[in-house]
Recover the amino acids of this structure.
């Protein structure tokens, strides 16, 4: 277990201890919510793990790099940005997927674009967003989020 | 809200079916190419360990925040805040680990009705979407501190610019 994982687990344990000391019912309720959301995420966790395995086991880094590596330029960044915008997986699971691509040929820009569009843009939740906030605001937010995601990606590629 | 919950319920079996499909495809692929089996299982196992060492703890933190941080805290603090204070609250309240983006839409709608600044609502939604504390921790775990910090800083800067820009556009008409 690395340092980050260790710190997060310690935080969770301390949080739970404090919670149980303060209010047992509320603490149990938080554990129930945690368990439910974990089970809901479980199939997606396995899917991502298998896809990462297949991806790295079958697709050589040169191929990944050809489509979304340094030499693919802005086209690769835009491609991954669109894929990220359309995909509907929990944001937490985008990071291992992004990491597996980054360490096997994808460029920093492509990976940054993927994470940023995936988290900021919700094409599946867009109807709900329009209903709650109005067409103009929802479309402006999602559209401009794509633009800034690409800018963030390109700046990251330039400085890292 | 009730409609969301229904959608949520229907989503559970769909993900399991998808997992079944992915499993079948991968088993067929590995039967055709048995030489790839070791590479695939090694990689999958490595990522499984990494995810299982961090995700349950993240879920516990999410659960704790959901129960202990009251839902109306956002409306209370963002309802009338403006200027730098407003931007600060918008970002800070968005980072609290409390569920997926579609939960934030009704909160944002309530803020709109209360007359909160449009820029702050956009900044709040964006912060909720991609600057959440548990997400940053998982990003740190998988992509390293340099990547995480640079992306975080850039995201905050550009999200603020976007919020102000959208407010200008909407107020212009």
């Amino acid at each position: 277990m690395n340092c980050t994982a260790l710190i997060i687990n310690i935080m969770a344990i301390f949080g739970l201890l404090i919670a149980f000391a303060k209010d047992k019912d509320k603490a149990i309720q938080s554990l129930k919510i945690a368990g439910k959301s974990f089970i809901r995420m479980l199939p997606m966790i396995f899917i991502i793990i298998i896809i990462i395995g297949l991806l790295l086991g079958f697709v050589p880094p040169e191929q990944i790099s050809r489509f979304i590596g340094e030499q693919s330029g802005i086209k690769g960044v835009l491609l991954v940005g669109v894929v990220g915008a359309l995909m509907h997986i929990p944001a937490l699971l985008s990071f291992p997927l992004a990491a597996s691509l980054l360490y096997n040929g994808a460029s920093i820009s492509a990976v940054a674009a993927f994470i940023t569009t995936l988290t900021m843009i919700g094409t599946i939740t867009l109807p709900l967003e329009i209903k709650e906030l109005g067409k103009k605001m929802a479309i402006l937010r999602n559209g401009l989020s794509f633009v800034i995601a690409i800018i963030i990606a390109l700046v990251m590629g330039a400085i890292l | 809200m009730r409609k969301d919950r229904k959608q949520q319920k229907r989503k559970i079996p769909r993900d399991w079916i998808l997992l079944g499909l992915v499993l079948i495809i991968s088993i067929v692929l590995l039967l055709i190419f048995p030489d790839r089996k070791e590479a695939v299982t090694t990689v999958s196992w490595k990522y499984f360990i990494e995810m299982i060492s961090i995700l349950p703890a993240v879920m516990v933190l999410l659960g704790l925040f959901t129960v202990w941080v009251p839902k109306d805290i956002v409306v209370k603090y963002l309802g009338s805040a403006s200027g730098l204070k407003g931007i600060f609250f918008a970002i800070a309240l968005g980072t609290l680990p409390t569920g997926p983006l579609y939960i934030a839409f009704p909160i944002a709608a309530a803020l709109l009705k209360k007359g909160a600044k449009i820029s702050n609502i956009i900044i709040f939604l964006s912060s909720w979407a991609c600057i959440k504390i548990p997400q940053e921790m998982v990003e740190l775990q998988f992509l390293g501190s340099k990547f995480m910090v640079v992306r975080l800083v850039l995201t905050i800067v550009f999200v603020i610019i976007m919020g102000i820009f959208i407010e200008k556009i909407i107020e212009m008409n």
